[in-house]
Amino acid sequence: MDGWKRTFWILFAGVLLCSSSYTMAVPFLPLFLFQLGVDESSVHLWSGIVYSSAFFMGALMAPLWGSLADKYGKKKMVVRAGLSLAVIYALFAVVQSPWQLVGVRLLHGFVGGFVPASMSIVASATPEKQLGWSLGMMQAGTMTGGIMGPLVGGILAEWFGLRLSFVVAAVIILAAAVSVIFWVKEGAQTPASGQPAKLGIMHTWKEAAKQRPLMRLLLLLVIFQLSVNMIQPVLTLHIADIQGSLQGAVLSSGIVFSLIGIAGIVASPFWGKKGQMHDYNTIMYICLMAAGAVIMTQYFVHQLWLFTVVQFIYGFFLAGVVPSVNTLVVRSTDADFRGRSFGLTTSANQLGAMLGPLIGGAVGLYLNVYWVFVCTGVILLIAGASVYASPKLSPAQSRKLHG
């Protein structure tokens, strides 16, 4: 097996396990708040705070982790994130109050970076003609974990309680980190420019500001993640409302989350290949417009089976956005900026993911959950229109892959 393929498959397994550990625990935090004494009248607001706290910290830290990856090695950042996350998930199992939960979520955001660092290694090692497929498959690995996590977490929560699912999540991410330690080999860290990467969040952003295509892609990621994460704080509770009871809501939510993951597994490599054959900007435009139109139909849906079908279709189109953005980021940046570029995409993702739950929680609190779906759809449609109107990446820029 070629060296890049071996690295790819190991890291594919790593992001699958990392995503599994995340979705075993985090989607059920709104229901966990009930166990911590939060009443129903304020659970939407607390859900938004709990979700957003980690993303706030992650948005601040991601560029620094990207700089450290360029200077000291991306593999070290993957291992650092994996071991740290194992400790954080174990802490979830012992929190006793909503504020303690927020504190652990802040730590969660502080130590993150497993998936973007893995993506950076794959992007640096993969031949250009395989780049769209490999990043699409890495996204599919994340989605596969999204299937495994909610199902396993939902079953464990039904049988043993939510706290045990956090413990199992810690063991899973620890296994992912150990697999990287023993089986991933990373090449030399000498930058293409011959100069060591400069550390510092401000320096990274100054370098990024000189690259307009990169900044447009980062802004698109912020808007995309904001819209997608508006739904997260209210989704589990909405499912409970549709089925008429909190009883079994964790398992039902796990099934819905998993079906969205299945859509992602099917769609991510598909959209990656379509982008290679045609144009990644066109793929992003199609996926954003279709996802926006589909999610708005949830305003009229009041049956759980139909809600699940619409979420599956929604997930199919969502899966085409992030691999396209990641591929264009790689093609618009030099090889010695690769770790920092994925750090910046993580920061953009985290910023949008921080704002989304706060907005979604507020809309759910002051209007109702159905308007959350409408607002999400409108934002996605606006994002799609902006992609259609924006300048396309030039051939000269797209040849910058690997410096």
Count of extended strands: 0
Q: Name the helix and strand elements from N-terminus to C-terminus, one letter apiece.
A: HHHHHHHHHHHHHHHHHH
* Rg (C-alpha, Å): 20 Å
- Which structural category do the helix and sheet elements fall into? mainly alpha
Beta-strand portion reads: under 5%
Distance between the termini: 25 Å
The CATH topology comes to: Growth Hormone, Chain: A
Question: For the report, how would you describe the main beta sheet?
Answer: none
> Which residue ranges are poorly predicted, with pLDDT under 50 across at least 5 consecutive positions?
190-194, 395-403
Level-2 CATH architecture: Up-down Bundle
Q: What's the number of structural domains?
A: 1
The top level CATH class name: Mainly Alpha
State the share of residues found in helices, binned by percent: over 70%
Number of helices: 18
Overall mean pLDDT: 81
| Overall morphology | globular
**The CATH fourth-level homologous superfamily:** MFS general substrate transporter like domains
Descriptive tags:
single chain, 403 residues, mainly alpha, Growth Hormone, Chain: A, 80% helix
3D architecture notes:
The structure is a single chain. With 403 residues, this protein is an all-alpha fold. The chain has a single domain (3-184, 198-398), classed as MFS general substrate transporter like domains (Growth Hormone, Chain: A). Helix content is 80%, strand content 0%. The protein has 18 helices and no strands. The longest helix has 30 residues, at 43-72. The model is unreliable at 190-194 and 395-403 (pLDDT under 50).
